[in-house]
Amino acid sequence: MWTKDKILSQAELLPVVAGWQAAGEKVVFTNGCFDLLHLGHVDYLEKARHLGDRLVVGLNTDASVSCLKPGRPLQDEVSRARVLASLLFVDAVVLFGEQTPLTLIEAVRPDILVKGDDYQLSGIVGHEVVLQNGGQVLTVPLVAGYSTTRIVERILQSSQGLV
């Protein structure tokens, strides 16, 4: 399978998810910007995938990233989606342009909604929807010291001879 085949529109994704669920597979959903993929992202996504049978990643579009993080993204949405789709444990990537993935979560109706342990369960967007549908909302431990912001800061310090 080509990595591009894992990048689906919401309309394409919904019947795929329905098929997985009809086959008894647990669908895990998470989301983020994933601007510069690093060890923290890989570890987080791998842990999320191990909570179920399939992992769907909601990816912020360039426009939504720009609203959330001024001056970003560093990589365009097509590049970010292809990199995510190349990960063996990611089954589908779907772009969303809203500030939050709530509408996407309502449509996908995952069995398990996951975020990093820097979130409180009650603060995870979509938690009410997933719980009302009989699903689970979970957090996974993050690898300390890894973030895109931190990488960008180190690059900038390095270019100024500060590292």
Query: CATH first level: which class?
Result: Alpha Beta
Could you name the CATH topology?
A: Rossmann fold
- Number of DSSP helical runs: 7
Major sheet: arrangement of strands: 3-2-1-4-5
> What's the average pLDDT?
91
The fourth-level CATH homologous superfamily is HUPs
How many domains make up the coordinates? 1
Per DSSP, what share of the residues sits in E-state strands of 2 or more residues?
15-25%
Our Rg estimate from Cα atoms comes to 16 Å
Give start-end ranges of low-pLDDT stretches.
Answer: none
Number of strands: 5
Relative helix content: 25-40%
Query: What kind of sheet is the major sheet?
Result: 5 strands, parallel
**What is the terminal-to-terminal distance?**
42 Å
CATH architecture assignment name: 3-Layer(aba) Sandwich
Task: Briefly say what this structure is.
Keywords: ATP-binding, Carbohydrate metabolism, Nucleotide-binding, Nucleotidyltransferase, Transferase. The chain has 163 residues and is α/β, with parallel strands linked by helices. It has helices at residues 10-22, 39-49, 62-68, 77-85, 102-108, 127-132, 148-159; strands spanning 27-32, 54-60, 92-96, 112-116, 136-140.
